Fold:
Amino acid sequence: MAAVAIPCPGYAQSARGNPAEEYGVRVARVKYGGGGDWYNNPSSIPNWLSEFERRTGVRTIKQEKVLALTDENLRAYPFLYMTGHGTIKLGSDERESLRAYLEDGGFLFINDSYGLDPSVRAMVRELFPERAFEELSNDHPIYHSFYDLPGLPKIHEHDKKSPQGFGVSIDDRLVIYYVYESDIGDGLADPDVHHDTPEKRELAMKMAVNVLMYAITQNVMM
Structure:
């Protein structure tokens, strides 16, 4: 387990500055068009945030929030989660909003549940035509931010390809982390959903904890 600097309580709120709102780390699920099932594995985020708080001591808000990229409260959620199978299609206003959000300090974690890869790559090309997706090496800090992992684990066996983690950075700050052929989200869901082994589920949770810990200690919107 790595030593980390934990942000002070109250760094993330659902309505920034509203004292009536509960404090804690929040994750919003991205709702997108194109036919992909952005809503899949609804138990993943609550399970993830409950375990993150238990393991790290950092307070979280367990309820999942679903947001469109054009939502006026987007910046109240510095960590976005995008997942599904099939196709992602963003309108020009959604792309403009997401790009500005990432440039201003937000973080996007994309989990390919299988079949999402072509549209993820197309989306990133449209978002940042001047930047390239880069595969992260196993010594990247995201694999060592809380747990010391040897790299991205393969959780759900869709096929025999090796898992890969890709990123987009702005000024040396990772703003998009994309997991391909791994399916961390399946391993976070309730155990009776995909019947992944306890060992696989533990690896998925450790990786998810690392991703969120990396984001809250590295990104400026928190």
Remarks:
- The CA atoms of residues 142 and 214 lie 6 Å apart.
- The chain has six helices and seven strands.
